[in-house]
Amino acid sequence: MISDVAAQTVVNVLMLSSIYILVALGFALLLTVLGILNFAHAAIYMVGGYICYQLAVVVGINQWASLLISMIAVGLLGLFLERVFFRPFLKDMNRIVVVTLALIIILQATINVTVGSYIRRIPSFVPGVLRFSGVSVSGDRLATFVIGGVLLLAVILFIRKTKTGLQMLAISQDSDGAALQGIKTHRIFAVTTAIGCALAAVAGSLMGAILSLSPFMGDIMLVKAIEIVILAGIGSIGGVLIGGLILGALDATLPLFISGSATDLTGLCIIIILLLIRPQGLFGREV
Amino acid sequence: MKPRGIFAIVVCLFGALALLTQPCLAGEPKTLKVGGLFCLTGFGSSAETYIAQGAKLSEEWINEKGGLTIKGEKYKVELVMEDMKGTADGAVAAATKLVYDHKVKIVIGTVVPFMVQAAGSVLEPAKVLRLVLYNCGMPSEYGPQTPYMFLTYDSTIEGMRAALDYLKEAYPKVKNVAYIIPDDGSVPYLDKLFREKATSMGYEVATVGKWAMTTQDFSPIITKVLASKPEAIAFANGWPQATGSMLKIIRDMGFKGPVFGCNYDDAYQIMEIAGKEASTDFFIHQIDLDSPDMTPMIKEIKKRAEAKYGKAYGMHIWGFNPLYELKQVIEAAQSTDSTVLKDTWGKMKTIDTVYGPGRMGGLKTYGINHTVCAPCPIVALMAGKVKWVKWVDVYSP
Amino acid sequence: MVAGEHAPSGGRNWIKTVAYAGLIILLFLLPLFVDSVYYLHTFIITLIYTIAACSLRTILISGQLSIAHAAFMGLGAYVSSIFARELNWTPWLTIPLGGVSAMVVGVLAGYPLTRVRAIYFSMVSLFVGLAIVALMGVFQKYTGGDIGLIGIPPLPSITIPGLPTINFLSSKIPYYYFFLLLTVFCLMILHSLENSRIGMSWKAIAQSYLVASSVGINEAGFRVLALAVGCFFAGIAGAGYAHYNMVLTRSSFGFLSSVNLLIYVLVGGTGSFFGPIIGTTVLVIVPEIFRWLKTFAPFVFGGIMLLVVFFMPQGIAGLFEQVKTKFLHFQERKKPRDVS
Predict the structure, then answer these.
(1) ipTM
(2) Is A116 in CB contact (< 8 Å) with chain B?
(3) How confident is the model over A204-217, as a mean pLDDT?
(4) To bridge C280 with a disulfide, which of A227, B61, B348, C264 should be the other Cys (CB 3.0-4.6 Å)?
(5) Residues in chain C whose Cβ is within 8 Å of chain A
(6) Do B223 and A212 touch (CB under 8 A)?
(7) For the whole model, what pTM was predicted?
């Protein structure tokens, strides 16, 4: 009985963590390389979900294909956003905050006006439920777990092993120095934003299947992504794994013991205390 | 200090003044302005956009039928809608705009409880007749202190009674029920009412699960609720995202018993979110537009909604209802004065709703007899299909 | 920098005083031109958010970009209304109490927060704000939870001998004057603080905390002081809002509201004291004008933000600086031609 709840909770923690990690990954990438807090990440995530929905349900093409197309489309959107909205303001934190917040408002309003606010859901990518000894996990969550893990690993490997990735790392440590060494910083910024947005599209599409789609779906997820990235520490992609696990563990276990709004309060207090002990985050660079 | 800064403010203020003080367009003679308060953007807009469309349909319907006749004079209804933007501040601003700028004395709309309350803080002192669609049982929201508020249709309390009655009938073997409720402040009141009704019917309340409003993933709370081994699960109130997600998780975790919702919510939307496999043994307070068992009025609204918006939703019907009731009240009172209307409506024993004949009640439950209790339709989701169940007659004394 | 900007001259000061007085007189006469309660409501809300936005800028000039300000507003609002509602204290007493309680929490949170700087400060402050809002949800017996608190007493009527009684329930005009006086009072304090030694220290810390510490400025102390001042006025604004609105909902003080306040400040411009005032005025009043756009209305808000970001690097308040610079350049280019 209690062991059932415990086993299910362990599964819940892993699944919720993978959801959070997937959402936070693109956000962390942009923060690391471009050094910007992309508040619009959650809105881009929502747009990705909607593109996938339109392709899979309205047009009626294969779901995995529409996920891929959504990734590419949102990646291209990322290129556009980087060129027009991010690049001119990279050095000015105040303006980047305003521009990304304006993007949230505009993207939400665009979806609200065009697609409408009716709540939708993308059909399951992996239908069915996996059950073993009192523990159950839906196919979509399992897919998110696998995709989240693979993407996290891929991003880490990409950064550590490829030339572009190493250039990203160099820029994240010292962008002027990197530029002096002949790294085309703007090209790297563009690639990073495209990848970050494509990751958001994957997350949005999968969340559209696990939860639901609405123009305002990103508002709470944005806060979760910020919590993870700050907990992990700016500049650490690998830390997102630990940050996601901590947040997932908090959100999946606290409701068992405390009910309602108190779970929010307890979770936030734990995060604040962790950050006050380690201001730079768990794996972040020194501040 | 920079003088140009001061200059800037002066220019801004003058510009703002020039734009703001433009007189609004004067209404045509013999037009009854009715305000509409809905969320067209932000929180709640997913349902309220369609409720607002339904209200628009009812305006057209009344005017097509020749409008309202008051003391031999014909009046056309003009529905002035303002967006509450999904926030309490927005609700206050929209209500202020309706009352003091559009000068309306009757307002329909507001569904989400916190916006009902916020808009009420402006409308109630201004003696504006309010035709509210939903209420979650908080005494601060609706009660003797809100004499101008009318609840136009069954809300969560009536829905809960109808649902428990139907549970007894359809699943006689169920002995205990778990109750899942958003932790929004209404818990103490709804919890008490639910326990009273459930114990009086011989049910045991297995557990009460409270979820925080910011919950993204409902798996933990469902795990907790299922650990108490309930035989049926009830949702107090919520919105399709929450209800649909929870239903999906409940079924994914292998719960086979009946699950039901107490609030008026779109069954098709819930099924879309929960998925076809999970949509079974679920029932909720809702109509089935395709069923032949609908009232003639609902069939008419369905036709109009399809003609105008392409597709009809249960929310259209819900939004149509307030003006449909208002028409009868105005014609009975032969006046457009909100106080006269309030008194007349308060004395009425019955009123026709689009859902069938309604009775006025609520004195014992809410402390004021301004509740329209109409037949409560129940729709089930069975094996991935929406199935019409029946009309349940509920009455809040 | 434009030459002569800092040159103190008697003539300029004289113009400045007249302009100030003129503006304030204009604002005092406003209810004579505006008879719609709805417009007065919009102006009152603008005044309330002006206090909050200006106090946020006070925190900002000390180098701390706080995303918790609406939460402190909410704290003041709830403390003031709970004391007035449950204990029947007069709002004249509970409004300052609301400010003080927001200040106390600001100081309590501020001390540990001095450990973090820049972007980390912003983020931890964001979590502090969320925690405060969650706290309001936990004590829902007093705060009403998400559904909200009603029955908050309005400001009690004032009787001044020889004058008719000022009754706040009768119309919005007394409220307008109350908030106008409150705004002028708060802004005067914030303005003089900014231009005092304290303000200079804040700006020094914002420039470089290492340099500031090396010249003997107590960094932590001054940062906490900025938070205390900012939170106090946010609390006052929130408490005033509570007794004006007479209904409170905790979602009005959440993440999005804090972000909105930040937008007011950033769009107005952080460089000038008038920035937040202009930003709040534009961003509160313009969307109200475009209310009739309904679902398209958010585009107006977003459009203003983009317009400012692209064409006014220093915010709307910086626009006049830009125009003047352009104008001077133009004149300077003209001059040599005249000489030749």
Answers:
(1) 0.90
(2) yes
(3) 89
(4) C264
(5) 65, 112-113, 115-120, 122-124, 126-128, 130-131, 134-135, 137-138, 140, 145, 255-256, 259, 262-263, 266-267, 270, 295-296, 298-299, 301-303, 305-306, 308-310, 313
(6) no
(7) 0.89
